[in-house]
Amino acid sequence: MGEAINATHLARTTVRSLLEMGVNTFVLSPGSRNAPLSIALYEAEQRGLISLHTKIDERGAAFFALGIAKASNNYVAVVCTSGTAAANYHPAILEAHHSKNKLLVMTADRPQRLRGTGANQTTNQTNLFGDIKTHDISTPIELASLFTGGPVHLNIQFDEPLLSSDSSDWLAGLQINSIPESTSASQKLEITGKTVVVIGHDSGTFTAEAIHETLSGIRIPVIAEDPLSHPASLAHASLFLADEGVRKKLKADHVIVIGRTTLSRSINSFISSAARTTVIDPRLEDIDTHRSADNKFLALPEMHGDIDAAYFDLWKSASQAAHSELHNQQSFSEQSAVTTITENIPAGSALFVGSSRPIRDIEGFSSPRSGIKTFANRGLAGIDGNISTALGISQCATPTYAILGDITFLHDISALISVEKSDLTVFVIDNNGGGIFSTLPQAGVAGFEKLFGTPHNLDIEKVVAGFGVQVERVKSSSDILRIINENKSGVRVVVVEVPAREKMAAELKNTDRKSTRLNSSHRCL
DSSP secondary structure string, 130-177? Predict the structure, then answer.
């Protein structure tokens, strides 16, 4: 892109352009090659123009920025030096890409002439992140057109000298605007007969409010992988649809899928049995381009029409029967711990849910409710960076709660090195290992504990205390309820001690049998 220019000038013009576009939150990891950006950002912070966070671990920094981006729906920048520092951003970028989150990645680089010469801390950072195009910058460029809703990568070449004595007021006359949102023309979708709506956990990148408005006035069965965001949905569908007989009796003529359904085989089996499917998801255009459906929409259409009223009543009856059966179960378990949390955290809260078991327990066991906003890294369903993501979300929402498995929690334990000022309570479901694998086909194979169970054998309470973070261990639903009612401020970890993984898996199988048996014999089915 031509000869590199003065590093300070390039950093200042880039930061100024971003400020004028409304980007006002930056997460910085310290380094030498990104020093021009670091100094420019500090000067902007001193003028009250931005929020600037410093994180020493680039992987955690990227997930922290991702959490803020998810909660604010605005571009959040993460800034690092060259070399392996940039590569550590990749997991968060993949998540942002597949969730279509607004993550701005700014990697500092050596000048192009040093690539391939053996220069220190220099590698080819162009197109480092696969499907995410790199904008390789050595001179100021127009940036606004690059921000189209998903992650953006700016790789900025800084030549020496990296520092400057120029003290000019480069922020004078700043005019702040915002990045325009793209819109799609509204289409129409007619609903008739036995039709069901299935909403994936990230709601297809739409807001829960927009989906509610679209379905308003239509009496239609709604299944939501995230029932906490969709109070009109029917509870426990993933459980009662696990029975093939129940699926046949509830078989739909038409299933409308909003987003992706990635949690339950039973839900996907139900969808695949329908005569006709419609998928609504903006990612059909540029990410999930090979999804199959009879109809595809990039935006929420106007829905109208009439459905089979008796069919809706059949679904409602199945949900109520499953709910009654589940609430007759008294023993403390992972599932009862999760439902106690989701039923009792206060209205106005944000909730981040880790992948693997917790998110599936919410889908299957929690009841739909209103008043909270849920988040998860479901773009690629990874367990990395979950504490960091929750900490990022907590910058925008008070209070914030998180439910994580113990392996997920330990995977990102370095995030506790520098916790932000926020009200975040992290519930860690501690069953000493990877509980989800005890519910999958590989359960019981030779070498299971070493290959899948992966017991950590750690006292998580002591580990957390070593970081100087508030921590407490609980063993009952009443203890969890007490924690929630205390409503303490700051960051704290609650280790929830639950029964062994094998017992959990056995109880889940028993619950499936009870739920499906009850529904199979119910008069409405």
Answer: TTS-EEEESS----GGG-SSS-EEEEEE-PSP--------TTTT----
Do 202 and 224 touch, CB atoms closer than 8 A? Answer: no
Residue 62 has what pLDDT? 98
pLDDT, tens only, 447-475 = 877 777 788 899 999 999 999 999 999 99
Burial 30-49 (b: 16+ CB within 10 A, else e): ebebbbbbbbbbebbeeeeb
First vs last C-alpha separation in the chain: 67
Given a contact cutoff of 8 angstroms between Cβ atoms, the answer to whether 504 and 307 are in contact is no
**Full-model pTM:** 0.92
Q: 302 with 290: CB under 8 angstroms? A: no
**Range list of H helices, 421-476:** 448, 460-465
In the beta sheet, which residues pair with residue 471?
A: 493
* Ordered mean pLDDT values, 10 residues apiece, the chain (525 residues): 73 97 97 96 97 97 98 97 96 97 97 91 91 94 91 96 90 89 80 95 94 93 96 96 94 97 95 97 95 96 90 95 81 92 97 93 95 96 96 96 96 93 94 72 79 85 97 96 93 92 62 54 49
The token duo for 449 is: 């504990």
d(CA 372, CA 523): 35
Between the CA of residue 369 and those of 40, 118, 227, 256, 359, what are the distances in Å? 45, 58, 7, 22, 16
> Is residue 287 a contact partner of residue 97, using CB atoms and an 8 Å limit?
yes
Amino acid 205: pLDDT: 94
